Hints:
Structural class: alpha+beta
Radius of gyration: 21 Å
Order of helices and strands: HHEEHEHHHHEHHHHHHHHEEEEHHEEE
Low-confidence stretches: 410-414
Bound molecules: protoporphyrin IX containing FE
Amino acid sequence: MLTIPPREVRSAAGLVRRWRQASDPQELADTYGELRAAGPLVPTPWRALLVPGYEDCRQVLTDRTWRTLSASWRDQHRPGWRESSSTVGLCETPLQQDPPEHTARRRPLAGILTPRAVGQLTEARVEPLVDGQVRAFVDRLRREGTADLVAAVCRPTPTAVLARLLGLPPDTDQAWLTDQNLALVQAEELASPPSAIRRADAAATALLACYDRMLADRRRHPADDILSHWAASEPVSARYLLLTLFSAGVPTTAALLASLALALTTRPGLAERILLEPDLTDRFVTEVLRWDAPVRVVTRVAADETELAGRSLPAGQIVHALIGAAHRDPEVFTDPHTFRPNRPPRRLLALGSGLHYCLGAHLARAQAVAFVRAFARELRGARLAAAPRRQTGPSFIDITHLPISASVHHSPAA
Ligand code: HEM
């Protein structure tokens, strides 16, 4: 570990604490600016380094010296870690693996998430599903006046899409699946309290038991779907492939849909503009991914002595690449604190980079685009009925509650 002078750690401690506790986007943007001003590598009290610059984050994500906190790393450095079933489960996903384990676990997932497979699924399933959910929400608004879009659309959608992609049994309790996955990923949050870790552990155990039951059932009664195929061809890893897809795909996509809805309800005229200029949709989604990246922190450890931001670092140094801060780097993004729905596309880090680049990128974007178009068509004119509620914690964004009021402009012909 790099020996950082205690004075340097002490002087950064207050700033690191503010960054860990910030959930308000403006407050977070301010702490990103302060972190950048404090230097390219900001020491934390737990002897890691925060990396706020875009190019340095990209280097951490793409340079093979930087490895995940994998099971074998934890066996050496985190005694007792196997007592946490959520961490054990998440270490079976490619997100926490390095080659060769990573390559083997990633392959079957990549096989079902090709652009072609996702393209077919989008037209046949994603668009009708999203349209149906948004229309049902509009009906509910008519009846009830105000309703929470996160609970009604943003969270159920990614689970429903994955359930259809894989061929999950129709009686699967999708709301339960969503909740358990939201609880599970809290194990990855840097500042999770012990109660959240206990909930994450219980969720991992319950989810794996649920996936085992589904797979056993498909072994007995195979059907023409991915679940049956994995049940037969991936006897050991199928449960972890399911764990990967739902834990990586549901909380992140739900967060993106909520951020898109927040932008559409709080920026006057935006929904109307998107309706008139459908080509704007893609850029708008990209700008929301920049502005409010669902995954804000990626953690890695140096396998060997290396250099980052002009400083030499020893093997074993842990760094947190701050994707949220990198997306506000003024050296890469002009006026980074201004939201511009038609900002020219630039390579974001929201979906990672390099070896671990997001396998669900096409699927997430397909859901986002379908959601924005349905929102602009069915819900333009909708307004926030109360301030959104956000979960605290530096690693993931999550709008937990987005109450929308009934003043919607419904035009079936549009
Ligand atoms: C807006 C939605 C999404 C965001 C922001 C997002 C973000 C990310 C990021 C940042 C990484 C890289 C993490 C790292 O380098 O450690 C990643 C990897 C991954 N994502 Fe996503 N993701 C999203 C949606 C999805 C969906 C829908 C799926 C699948 C259904 C998915 C599956 C994966 C998988 C399997 C990996 C691991 C790839 C690897 O380690 O090789 N993601 N995602």
